Amino acid sequence: MPLTPEQQAEIDAQRATPRPTLRAVSEGMEAHLYKASEVLDHGFVRVIDYMGDDNAIVQAARVSYGAGTKHVSNDEGLIRYLMRHWHSTPFEMCEIKLHVKLPVFVARQWIRHRTANVNEYSARYSILDREFYIPQPDALAAQSTVNNQGRGEVLTGAEAERVLEILKSDAGRSYDHYEEMLSQDGQQGLARELARMNLPANIYTQWYWKVDLHNLFHFLRLRADAHAQYEIRVYADAICEMVKDWVPFAYAAFEDYRMGGVTLSSKAVDCLKRMLKGEDVTQETSGMSKGEWREFQAAIA
Amino acid sequence: MPLTPEQQAEIDAQRATPRPTLRAVSEGMEAHLYKASEVLDHGFVRVIDYMGDDNAIVQAARVSYGAGTKHVSNDEGLIRYLMRHWHSTPFEMCEIKLHVKLPVFVARQWIRHRTANVNEYSARYSILDREFYIPQPDALAAQSTVNNQGRGEVLTGAEAERVLEILKSDAGRSYDHYEEMLSQDGQQGLARELARMNLPANIYTQWYWKVDLHNLFHFLRLRADAHAQYEIRVYADAICEMVKDWVPFAYAAFEDYRMGGVTLSSKAVDCLKRMLKGEDVTQETSGMSKGEWREFQAAIA
Amino acid sequence: MPLTPEQQAEIDAQRATPRPTLRAVSEGMEAHLYKASEVLDHGFVRVIDYMGDDNAIVQAARVSYGAGTKHVSNDEGLIRYLMRHWHSTPFEMCEIKLHVKLPVFVARQWIRHRTANVNEYSARYSILDREFYIPQPDALAAQSTVNNQGRGEVLTGAEAERVLEILKSDAGRSYDHYEEMLSQDGQQGLARELARMNLPANIYTQWYWKVDLHNLFHFLRLRADAHAQYEIRVYADAICEMVKDWVPFAYAAFEDYRMGGVTLSSKAVDCLKRMLKGEDVTQETSGMSKGEWREFQAAIA
Amino acid sequence: MPLTPEQQAEIDAQRATPRPTLRAVSEGMEAHLYKASEVLDHGFVRVIDYMGDDNAIVQAARVSYGAGTKHVSNDEGLIRYLMRHWHSTPFEMCEIKLHVKLPVFVARQWIRHRTANVNEYSARYSILDREFYIPQPDALAAQSTVNNQGRGEVLTGAEAERVLEILKSDAGRSYDHYEEMLSQDGQQGLARELARMNLPANIYTQWYWKVDLHNLFHFLRLRADAHAQYEIRVYADAICEMVKDWVPFAYAAFEDYRMGGVTLSSKAVDCLKRMLKGEDVTQETSGMSKGEWREFQAAIA
CA-to-CA distance for C52 and D117, rounded, in angstroms? Predict the structure, then answer.
């Protein structure tokens, strides 16, 4: 249970007092505001603030394209057109601010998305809590034998038990030692900025993360993808649920053109044309490498 | 008068319908929303949307610095501390979206601030309006004789008249020719993306511009500065009036530490220390070049 | 002829004096260094400096992916893999600095690519030259009747003559007036930062533009595309010729996966699968709008 | 000793084969290329590539400011002028690529500088080495009692011994368990992307980091500062030594105006003016808070 009673009380208070605004309001998003969507064993994502809605995207596009957009009859059609033609600037006109609690090794992947604003909890200033990510049994996977960066089957039996025992006991011991080094009881106490180095990467941190919708879609395309590491994908999935309610037209277009979309190389397009004409194309006659051919087959089979 | 009756009616309608929200609300900014602040002869700035307020800055800082910020007794003190110590990330947690109508030569300076989102009116898609910036008599300045990028005295008499006559007649003729080339009356009509090349840089364009508060302060520091070109400074000044009402603590800290602040080199600090001890320091004994000494004198005199 | 004898002499001097370096050297790019590739009537692109080569991409990827990349047998295969799987960071490890002379209306499109470094000639500081883009007859196109932002047939006869006459005489007159307003002969002379506003958007400016290879590819994909405006496409085409010699493997992968690549929506992929199974799919049974269907047909026909 | 004989041999080979180039060459930087500057117990920084030199900054400025820069008589003076007046774009025209080996908790601070390109070693793909940062005795500091994010006295005696013992034994045990979980000897072996979560933040990682000179100076101002954490400051210091030899004029200006510079608020400037006139100003009459006054005193005393 990631939320303390104090946190839940604070959320309840924030949700109890609506105020009037003249700004664009997304009803779907208002329902999510401040509520924590629980992720992994101690993590969460919650929306702290947002700017804009589907209409804000349309409004910005109409500034840019003026009369040029009039022939697209409705807002949904225009949003689909923008997404299909990679007109990204109107999507940048929406912004979201999230509060995320997440393991450090997930945070390290996440932060590689540079076009965002971040305020992370600082372990130089303050002491981290005793909270570590320990995978559920069904997330305890073996190294993939075919993919260098992937997972294979779920571990079971004695091996699974050994792994969980190691993760739990090492986390506990590290945190005991962290407290012991920090302690000013009968000793000076090590600087916080040094003591934190003993903590493993499954400890939880938290941050405020603010990003525009275009860059958020880029994040979601990579991190809600089947090839993303499970532990970041569950955060991306939780965010998808919020975005779907925030900007339903934009999210639907994103699902169709990005998440479910496929990019084919010019070689692949050539093969496709030949196949549609009835030719029997094989890897040997495709001009593609074995890897490319395998991925092409997976995309269209 | 930059606003048409239609635009004014649209603004009135937008302002007439407050809706409830659970988000942070800045009362000061709500009063500005959608209203056009008139700038130059046909330009304006108006706030389309905003995210956050002074409290959002504090809230983000407290996530980062945790217990480390508790000793700063109040929100204003914390915001001043953050500004003084260049802790910029909490200020990035506020965002503003503006609708700006401005001459193209001003837009060209403005766009050099890269960390922002922009949707500009496209003259490839649509036809520009017949609106040109013609300076007021008191803005019609001679080239500075001391500063390569500055202005000197205001032009008067026959010279001023000649300049205004040129600007007006060239603008008018260019626009006539623009329409003539575009016309499909008895001819094919030149492509819009080509015809626009005949229009001078004082024609008005417009855009939506979205930026976070940290980057907005950077823009304002450079563009509301006395050395900025007058025609962009008036836009920066108009935005300052909005920001002052949006985030009053942050704006006051910005004024004190950035707009009114002075950066001294290590050489200048050395001189200052000697001067405070009663020594009579001259340019020759300062170690500074003439230019640096002149600027140093201006800063502390 | 865009280059003055002085400029040509400077280029010759720069090219005459090779110096030893321990850095990665791209022979293909050395052959381009400093040489101006002429574009439009007075413009050019020339490479001022570069960092890295194909091997630098591979080297960076091997830092990231370590043993994970060993099974990819060669550099070209690895680069193709990176491009196909959108692993963009290794491509960011190469950098290029260009000197570009271009009409202002082209510069205004170009600058929208924000992730780059720019030093543009300042008309506040200095006086612009009398050089304007006047289209060649075969670039003088009518407005497209089907595409709001496109061109149709080439104008001919009296209409073409009238357009060229307008463009030439307006440019000339604007520049005469620019000089007249700036003149300090018997008058004070208008400030340069004001006088420039009278100049039309086909006047030439110039800048240094520095960008990493990943962002350059993004620029080239959009601007060397058939839908880009002709006047920026010719610059993109000229840059393509340089990049091809600089990083031949990366450029070939870019051509195959990006320039010649096609992105299909999930709806389009579904249709494709049905078509490959022999089903006769029409727009009505495709689930796509007419516009999407038309684009889909164009992609695979 | 951070470098293996293999690495040293590779460096020697790279340094043995100069090649001719027509690009700008910085002799000072050539002497650093590829050589590892050792930092902390297992870390290093080494220059992999660079673009530009002092002259490249001047050259870019002269494109921008044209005739406006002619009155500045020499390159050093112009560079100092640019630095003093915050004209940052010419400094962006130089670029550097570093190979850095550093503890993860240092990497986490470093990566917050977003305007850079990074390729980090991936522990999803590959196995990390058994190398941990263990502080030297004189870096083993107590928590500061006055500064929430600072260090106080150096720990000694039994407390220091206990801390070192904890850091060493926890690191060793974590790594043993990491290997044990990964092992495929008689078991499936945990996925690398999961096993890494057990490793503490003092384990070493490595990356290629590419940044322009303007953003590098920003990094160095914050991280070579006395208030930066010691473990990142030593990296910044090592980089300073390289930059000093790469762009000596720019580095000297950076030292004078940024590292050694002081920013005063408008309140502080007012006090200073009063003090220079002989007035005895105290905190009570200064209008500053106690904290501001203390910092002001420290700056000018």
Answer: 14
